[in-house]
Amino acid sequence: MLVYTGKRIVLALLVAVTVSFISFMILNLSGDPAIALAGADATPEEIKFVREKYGLDRPILVQYIEWAGRAIQGNFGESPYFNQPVKDIIGDRIGVTLILGLCAFLFAVCLAIPLGVIAAIRPNTWIDRTALTISVFGQAMPNFFFGLILIIVFGVILRWLPISGGESWRHFIMPAIALGYYGSPALMRLTRTGMMEVLASDYIRTARSKGLRPGPVLFKHALRNAIIPVVSLAFVLFGYMLGGAFVIEYVFAVNGVGFLAVRSIERADLPVVQAIILLLSFIYVTMTLLSDILNAYLDPRIRVK
Amino acid sequence: MNTEISVPFKDISFPTPRQMTLRQARRHKGFLLGSSVLLLIIIMALLAPLLAPHDPYDQNLSKRLTPPVWHAKGTWDHPLGTDNLGRDYLSRLMYGARISLIIGVAAMLISGVIGTTMGVLAGFFGGRVDMVVNAMITTRLALPIMLVALAVVALVGGSLQIVVLVLGLMIWNRFALVMRASTQQLRSMDYVSAAKAAGCSTPRIILTEVMPNIMNNLIVVATLEITRAILIEASLSFLGMGVQPPLPSWGLMVAEAKGFMLFSPWMIAIPGAAIFILVLSINLLGDGIRDITAPEGRS
Questions:
Q1: Is the Cβ–Cβ distance between B285 and B34 less than 8 Å?
Q2: CB contact, 8 Å: A262 with chain B?
Q3: Which residues make Cβ contacts (< 8 Å) with residue A33, sequence separation at least 6?
Q4: The model's pTM
């Protein structure tokens, strides 16, 4: 188990470093950051000044190594827009994104797992079809459109909930539903297929034939085994929700990291964008790592392989 | 050779595999619904210059924000109303279908070529090749594509070509994963070994023995990736960093309508529903193809 964990951690670190390198290169080579910073109508002197001030005149590899060296120490430079350390700007907003991600995740789990389980116990009934419809719709619905529908129905017409901002818990209801619904189809499908497979297995038939009541069979024997792949997907999904939140944060004007990312891209505030990309890939890598380790812990067969 | 086998029961006809597939397709409700809706959208996109009642770029400020025809104030002149610049909404919707379809298909083709090449090579050769491809997939998955795509489009400048290129270069991961797994399964098949023993060259084995057998999976992934590209383009355009105005991208139409949400919610509902219906129909088609072509689906 220790060797396995160690290997996965080294691999995850390698991936994080590669991702930071690639995203740095993509961002710095797809346009001239100096021109983007100085504005489209800047004079050549102004562009030259910006280029020298932020060290953009040096070779790109030198810039990357310097940036990465500082990033390891938690220093992501200063934002030219805010004139503040990037660390503080992101630090102020990460809490909101985490709360939103957590609420969305809880919503997705509470919607997907019960529905998936019931759909597996009663296949081809109305509840199975409802679950299928919810998941098919969820996969086809653009999340910004779903968010706007929620705003129109519950914010504008019914006036039940505030439509933008993040001051109280009520502000998080609609964004969390919009974000969580987006993640639920994958969870639901995996729960349903997993449950159906387990329910058809020999040990469940044995448990049933020796006269165990349906409740314990379902929850103690079946669900515990069917849930293993779901747990590992859930971890990845949580990371995905933190990263995929920015469209939803933008729609609901929730002042989190995602909203900051969109705004910073508009403002060509590259140090902030760079740091957010690194943060998101780091979250993703950590979540996959945790899910792998947890999976190996729950299912010993993986460790041996 | 064209020998006829005498069958004792001449009346019984045995369906060919193609006939069996067709029969399955005709019975599959999702497949039928998805393919017919998609066909309608494609016809609408192709014939947009003939079908559209107005020029999609023609502004008429005296007629701005006309509601759709089912509304009390609607007119048949603009069946779906007009936008904030007085442009005919139905015409823009029809031309918008072209943008979604072009981006979906073009991005899928680029990513399909990249991903399939990587996946098939990794699955076929295994070993080092597999390790490298695996590392590339893992890295790609850890890269937040929406954010990177947004940043690149913002820096390079949004246009149809840039959006297609950025998406095509980024969404190859599922192609690579699925093709790798499918090829791995085939690698040790008897007919592949037979081809090797017969002295066929590796490219020939890959092209004539492996590729035809992973085609079904490839088509299913392709439909999924078209919808992914369409949805990402819609989000990018919605955030103002995809296809640029005045092009009638559906995502952009939703973005432009956002300011009129209070009094003209239909302006959001119509293009949003269009994206939803297009993606839903392609998904249904893809699920249908998977059900029909899967060996266990054949009765």
A1: yes
A2: yes
A3: A27, A54, A56, A268, A270, B155
A4: 0.87
A29 at B interface, C-beta within 8 A: no
B226 touches chain A (CB under 8 A): no
Write out the residue range of the structural domain in which residue A45 sits. Answer: 2-91
Chain A residues touching B155 at Cβ < 8 A: 27, 30-31, 33, 36, 268
* ipTM of the prediction greater than 0.95, yes or no: no
pLDDT band, very low/low/confident/very high, at B295 (cuts 50, 70, 90): low
A84-85 and A78-79 as β-strands: parallel, antiparallel, unpaired? Answer: antiparallel
Does residue A220 share a domain with residue A86?
no
B185 close to A (CB below 8 A): no
Chain B touched by A142 (CB under 8 Å): yes
Verify that A200 and A136 share a domain, yes or no: yes
Tell me the average pLDDT of chain B.
85
The phi and psi torsions of B88 (rounded to 5 degrees) equal: -65, 125
Please indicate, yes or no, whether residues A81 and A175 belong to a single structural domain of this protein. no
Q: Domains in chain B, ordered, with CATH?
A: 28-42+89-297 (1.10.3720.10)
The answer for residues whose C-beta is within 8 angstroms of residue A294's C-beta and 6 or more apart is: A231, A232, A235
How far is it, in rounded angstroms, from Cα A125 to Cα A300?
A: 35
Considering the domain architecture, whether residues A111 and A226 belong to the same structural domain is answered as yes
Q: Are A247 and B238 an interchain contact pair (Cβ–Cβ within 8 Å)?
A: yes
Q: Residue B5: which pLDDT band, with cuts at 50, 70 and 90? A: low
Q: Give the whole-angstrom CA distance, residue A302 versus residue A282.
A: 24
* Chain A residue closest in CA terms to B143: A281
* pLDDT number for residue B12: 66
Which residue in B has a C-alpha nearest to residue A287's C-alpha? B142
Tell me, what's the pLDDT at A212? Answer: 82
A76 and A100 together in one domain: no
Instruction: CATH number of the domain at A188, please.
Output: 1.10.3720.10
Task: Identify the residue among A30, A145, A179, A269 best suited for mutation to test binding to B, counting B beta carbons within 10 A and taking the highest.
Answer: A145
pLDDT digits (tens, 9 = 90+) for B12-38: 677 777 787 788 777 888 889 999 999
Residue ranges of chain A whose pLDDT lies below 50 = none
Biggest alpha carbon–alpha carbon distance for chain B: 79
Token pair of B291, please?
């059900």
Are residues A64 and A106 located together in one domain of the fold?
no
Residue type for position A61:
L
For B161-216, write each residue's pLDDT tens digit: 889 999 999 899 989 999 998 898 888 888 888 888 888 888 888 888 888 888 88
